[in-house]
Design brief:
- The chain has 10 helices and 5 strands; from the N terminus they run E-H-H-E-H-H-E-H-H-E-H-E-H-H-H.
- By secondary structure, the protein is α/β, with parallel strands linked by helices.
- The chain has one domain: 5'-nuclease (Rossmann fold), CATH 3.40.50.1010.
- It has a 5-stranded parallel beta sheet with strand order 3-2-1-4-5.
- Helix 1 packs across helix 9 (about 135-145).
- It is globular, with a radius of gyration of 15 Å.
Length: about 160
């Protein structure tokens, strides 16, 4: 993950970080600015039946929650869901280099749009590298127990990079 001060983040990483760590505070520690497009705010606040992650998201008053809809290009709207499209478009509009997206298609389109990409695992690994006392193994277990899907390849790679394999 590139060393960056600003990031625009999608729904899945926000939910996954709450699952992994119980809150979103790690983002505040790693970045000066964390932007959340209105479209992502709406997805999170809908929260599904369990409303998982909603209280933690609402408590993170330091998140820069974009107040208006992002004017998304037709290409992005036709290629991605509204959250991913808004993350990429907001990063482009605000000249922010890095986005946090977990879904493969969104990551690919972000790279094609000239952006650097990280995801939940990338944030956890960066935190560990920067001296935060977190167990990648335990974080992954917490995510899996909350129904977050991770491939064996991603899990094995994360554990290897963290020196926990």
């Amino acid at each position: 993950m590139p060393n960056t001060e600003k990031i625009v983040i999608n729904t899945a990483p926000l939910i996954s970080l709450v699952a992994a760590l119980g809150d979103l505070n790690i983002l505040q520690s790693l970045y000066n600015q964390v932007l959340v497009p209105l479209e992502v705010c709406q997805e999170i606040l809908t929260g599904g039946a369990s409303r998982f992650g909603v209280p933690e998201f609402e408590a993170a008053s330091w998140l820069q929650k974009w107040p208006t809809p992002v004017n998304i290009s037709p290409f992005l709207l036709n290629s991605l869901d509204s959250g991913e499209a808004a993350v990429i478009q907001l990063a482009i509009n605000e000249n922010i280099q890095t986005v946090c997206i977990d879904e493969a298609t969104g990551r690919r389109v972000a790279r094609l749009s000239g952006l650097s990409v990280t995801g939940t695992i990338g944030i956890l690994l960066r935190a560990k590298r920067e001296g935060y006392s977190i167990s990648i193994q335990q974080s992954i277990q917490q995510m899996l127990s909350r129904g977050i899907r991770l491939s064996k390849t991603v899990i094995n790679s994360a554990l290897e990079q963290a020196g926990e394999s």
